Amino acid sequence: MQYNLEIQKKIVPELLELLDKRYNILTTIYYNQPIGRRMLANYLGIGERVVRNEVSFFKKQNLIDINSDGMTVTPEGREILEKLKEFVHELKGLAEMEDFLRKHLDLKDVMVVPGNVDENELVLDEMGKSAANYIKDLLDDKMIIALTGGTTIKKMVDNMPKTSDYRHLLVVPARGGLGRNVEIQANTLVAKLAEKLSADYKMLQLLENVDYAEIFAILNEESIKEVQESIGKANVLVYGIGKADEMARRRGSKEEKISELKEDGAVGEAFGCYFDRKGNIVFLSHTAGIKSEDTKRIEYRISIAGGKSKAEAIIGVQRYNAKNILITDEGAAKEIINIIKKEQDNKSI
Known about the structure:
Blueprint: H1 2-11, H2 13-32, H3 37-44, H4 48-60, E1 64-67, E2 70-73, H5 75-91, H6 94-104, E3 109-113, H7 123-138, E4 144-147, H8 151-159, E5 170-173, H9 186-197, E6 200-201, H10 216-219, H11 222-232, E7 236-240, E8 242-243, H12 244-250, H13 255-263, E9 266-270, E10 273-276, E11 281-284, H14 292-295, E12 300-304, H15 311-320, E13 325-329, H16 330-348
Parallel strand pairs: 3-13, 4-5, 4-7, 5-6, 7-12, 12-13
Antiparallel strand pairs: 1-2, 8-9, 9-10, 10-11
Helix pairs in contact: 1-2, 2-5, 3-4, 6-16, 7-8, 8-9, 12-13, 15-16
C-alpha cells in the first residue's frame, strides 16, 4: 500500500491533492451540518464557485443532501468519511509522525489527526472524537477518571458515545474552576461525561486561581478532602495543555509574573504546573486539585492538544512524565518534529 501510494504521489500528485481537498470539505460539512454554501466557503477559506462545484459532485455521488436548512452528510457519506480516514492518515505520513513522536518524547501512545487547529477550529472536533474513542476502549469497571477543564476536553466529552457497559465508574475534576466560561470548567465536564458513561461523579467546588495555602481549613473540609482522595486514586487523567503565558494571563497573573515565567523558560502549562522545554517545573500553583507528583503514578495520562503554536508547550509537558498518551494534530506534530530535529542538530555541532 505504501509503495503504491509513493508511486501515485510522483505520477498523479494532483489526484491526491484533490482527494485531500474533498475530504476536508466533506468533513467540514459533517461537523457543521446543516450548513450553507457561503458559510462553508468562509470556514474553508475558499471561493464560493469552488464550493459550488464540489457540492454538486458530492450531491451526484449521494454523499450529501441539500435542503432549505443547508447541506447534511448522508449515511453513505459518513461511511465514506470513515473509510477515508485511514487512507488520509497514510497519505499525509501521519503514521511516521506518530512513530517519531512516540520515540523522541518517550510516549506510551500517540494519535495524530489531519490538519492544524490554528488554521481550522474543526480539527478540535476530530481530536475530540479520536480521544473519546481511545478513552472508551480502555475503560474498565471501578475506574476513576479525572478531567481538567478546557475547550479540548469539552470536545472529547461532546464526542463520547453513551454507554452503560461499565460498573462503578467514578468521574472527578482534576482541578477547580477557572474563568467565567462555565461550559468548559472541569465540574461541568465531569457531570456531562458521567451522564454519558452512566457513572457516578464528584465535584470540587473551589476556584482554581485562589491560594488555598492561606485558608488551610477549607481544604480540610470533609467534602473537599473526599474529592481530593478520589483524585489521588485516579486511573485515568485527561488534560489539556496551554501555552505558559496565555494560561498565566487567564489565571489573572500580573505582567511581572508572566515576564518572570518567560525568563525561567516556561513554555507550557498543565494541571497547574508551568514547564520549560526540558520538562522541568519552573512554577507550581499550590491549589486544590491534582498534584504534579500524583500524575506520575496514574496509569493512563492522556493529553489532548493541537496547533502549531502549542508545539513547545506540548514538548515541555510530555517530557515531564514518561509514557504519556498524546492526541494531537498534524500542525503540532510537524512543528514538534522540527523543534526536536533542531535540538539534535545543535547537540551534534
